[in-house]
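Tokens for chain A. Residues wanted.
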């Protein structure tokens, strides 16, 4: 049995053809699932009894159980329980351009970045495509409003769960599915280089963000284990190729950590690294957590860092902070809930 939310339309079309039905049945099912939001096959009234009973044999309706919802002014943070009792988080943010959700892609993460709660809690397993999709659908149902933007920046490394992640993207982007535009979706990776190459060949306009967090290998390897596998040079080569191939701008995320990667020297080095590349830098004030001793850079130094990049004509923004009160950084709510393991 497969979760009905984990199947792409093209595969559902093949399924119907295999059972001697017309492939447009797949469109009908998608409309029931993602337009009319039904939660049983019996409600799909334009399908015959035979088709419905066949669907029931092969598919089931998965769901996420809402455990905790924390609210701050413009942000809601959700903790969900999966059918195997594992827990995941999603964060909903209200922007002037609409609602955006930050979803998780794995239970925990194996990349082991020093500053990150998700990395502290090791990967238990990958999320399936439907568990990613259900974060979007369940939160939409909760707020009774359409979500317009998705960022895959919650717990986990999406490119370490590439196939499920791509299935999720194909479903959520399907015009008969939730139909969230590719340009309204952003995936963030810690820099798994071979997957950056795979991703540029997908022919889908999803935005790419790279968690760079350092201007050189020495600093990056100190805070990101993944840099021992894929160096900055390899990342930059892949990014340049990505830009050439897709003609799209890349975002570099850069968390500012006091006395680690926030010096004027680092800002200059970063400017040199990114000079001439069609990108922009998102400076992220670090969200401190009880379990990790790293400190956030003081506001005055964040501004200096910003100014140095600006002066060197790098496109740069400082990330607007959401939900410090509701433990919105990656993995924090789950860490609290799991009893500080
Ligand atoms: N694994 C992917 C996506 C999830 S992490 C990646 O690393 O890109 C999403 C972003 O949140 C990353 O840029 C990560 O570095 C950042 N992040 C993790 N912990 C954080 C914290 N405590 N404060 C601020 N940003 C954090
Ligand atoms: Fe994993 Fe991203 Fe956290 Fe690194 S920052 S441990 S890659 S979730």
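Reply:
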């Amino acid at each position: 049995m497969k979760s009905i939310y984990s199947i792409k339309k093209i595969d559902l079309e093949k399924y119907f053809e295999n059972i001697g039905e017309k492939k447009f049945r797949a469109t009908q099912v998608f409309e029931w699932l993602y337009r009319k939001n039904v939660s049983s096959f019996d409600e799909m009234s334009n399908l015959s009894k035979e088709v419905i009973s066949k669907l029931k044999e092969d598919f089931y309706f998965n769901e996420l159980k809402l455990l905790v919802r924390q609210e701050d002014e413009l942000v809601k943070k959700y903790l969900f329980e999966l059918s195997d009792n594992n827990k995941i988080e999603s964060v909903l943010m209200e922007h002037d351009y609409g609602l955006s959700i930050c979803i998780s892609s794995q239970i925990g993460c194996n990349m082991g970045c020093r500053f990150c709660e998700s990395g502290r809690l090791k990967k238990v397993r990958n999320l399936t495509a439907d568990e990613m999709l259900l974060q979007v659908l369940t939160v939409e149902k909760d707020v009774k409003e359409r979500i317009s933007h998705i960022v895959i920046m919650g717990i986990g490394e999406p490119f370490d769960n590439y196939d499920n992640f791509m299935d999720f993207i194909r479903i959520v982007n399907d015009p008969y599915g939730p139909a969230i535009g590719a340009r309204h979706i952003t995936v963030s990776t810690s820099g798994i280089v071979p997957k950056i190459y795979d991703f540029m060949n997908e022919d889908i306009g999803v935005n790419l963000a790279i968690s760079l967090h350092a201007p050189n290998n020495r600093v990056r390897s100190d805070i990101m284990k993944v840099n021992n596998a894929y160096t900055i040079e390899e990342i930059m080569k892949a990014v340049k190729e990505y830009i050439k191939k897709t003609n799209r701008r890349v975002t570099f995320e850069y968390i500012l950590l006091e006395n680690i990667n926030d010096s004027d020297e680092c800002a200059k080095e970063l400017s040199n690294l990114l000079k001439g590349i069609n990108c922009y830098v998102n400076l992220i004030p670090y969200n401190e957590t009880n379990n990790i001793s790293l400190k956030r850079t003081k506001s005055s130094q964040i501004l200096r860092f910003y100014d140095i990049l600006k002066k060197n004509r790098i496109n740069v923004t400082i990330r607007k902070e959401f939900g410090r009160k509701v433990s919105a950084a990656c993995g924090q709510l789950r860490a609290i809930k799991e009893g500080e393991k």
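The chain has two domains: 2-60, 65-326. Residues 337-341 have pLDDT under 50 and may be disordered.
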